[in-house]
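User: Hey, quick favor. My workstation is busy. Could you predict this chain's structure for me?
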Amino acid sequence: MNFSKLTIEDISKKLQNKEVSSLELCKFFLKQIKKIDPQINACISVFEKEALAEAKDADKRIASGEKGLLLGIPYLVKDNILTKGKKTTAASKMLENYIAPYNATIITRLRNAGAVLLGKTNMDEFAHGASTENSAFFTTKNPWDLDRVPGGSSGGSAAAVSAGLCVFALGSDTGGSIRQPSSFCGVNGLKPSYSRVSRYGLISMTSSTDVIGPIAKNAEDLAIVLNCISGFDENDLSSSKEVVVDYLKESKKDLGKIKIAIVPEFINSLEDKYRNAILNAIDIFRKNGAEIKEVSFEYNKYAVPAYYIITPSEISSNLARLDGIRYGFSCDYKAKGCSVENLAEIYSNNRGMSFGSEAKRRIMLGTYALSAGYFDAYYKKAMAVKDLIIKEFDEIFSDCDIILTPTSPKTAFKIGEKVNDPVQMYLEDIFVTAPSFAGLPAASIPVGLVDNLPFGMQIIANKFREDLVLRAARLFQEKTDFNKNLPNL
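Assistant: No problem, here it is.
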């Protein structure tokens, strides 16, 4: 049986009914990785020995009568999430040999639930990018077209789910890094509300908007993983004590007479072939009883410029711990052919050796924006824009339940097409940045193929209303088969 086509619920039933063991399942996906990953380069590391041991343990737990939808289910995780005793590189030379001393809270929660960790996925270095071309190690390829990018920065996780290398994966989303690659790869990706999921053990990019979330085959799978990873964590005091509902149960409820906001200027900015896909999706909701209301989003055009002031500012602070000045640096000087006498020179050049070009660019931008004489002109004004965007969302949600937008302006672009044009790369975030500013839950779901490439729609709800996002996604997937489209590998 091809388990790569099955959902979490499908596989869980087979595990509980003893139709398959977790060990057999684990071996299947490890074989998939060995067979398919050389084509797409989704994985930075694979934990074969440890995964097999975890699968055996899951089988023992099942045999003892334990139940759980994630018990025995294999998954992959983005390589900026700490896994104890294993490398966590953030796809950077700076952390190439870094061994995590502890597990991220979400890894602990998934392990307690019995999920089986297969390995770590590729990403843009320190999550800086929208194509996974900024990885210090290799470029991940889109399973739908190996000449195209999978999106970023969680491109490895999205590509892995799309290619059937795991049942689900985890990514991080700061300004679209789960949603945009999910759109490009034809999978489902959820950015939970800010503080809904613990960030303990996530290598920080932008602490004020970083969120960990799932990438999966459908809305129900997103809900299952969210149930496991959500909730307050005493190790992350920014995590919320808001009650965690049963997202799977909520996702299966009737959507009712929901009021949906659409933004005409977003839709009209698209080329016809993309506009038609979004309009068709909106029409499906309308035919199923939703009231559609047109709204304006005046400040969205300022979201990307403001984001690329605030985000680099926080990056320059968060990466300061790795610049070699405050805490030293890790360098095997003998392997580099250096003597002890050369260490002073190595020390002074450490940042140049280890950070990639995009990381350097963002550090420099952020340091400049925070510097004396420019803080008021740039950072303070960007924060004022952020406040206006949050206020605008509040006004829309005072009269509407969810907002539908495109996830990205287009389908996946070709490898190398935008990598030397940072402005064009940043504009990939045009529809996904604003919800991150406001800390809102948002998901990207497939709405069809355009020129044989996946194209996604974003569903946004008010803070802590992941249930509405998932309910809308589930309804749409009941009426369509778009989420079942698979690449031909």
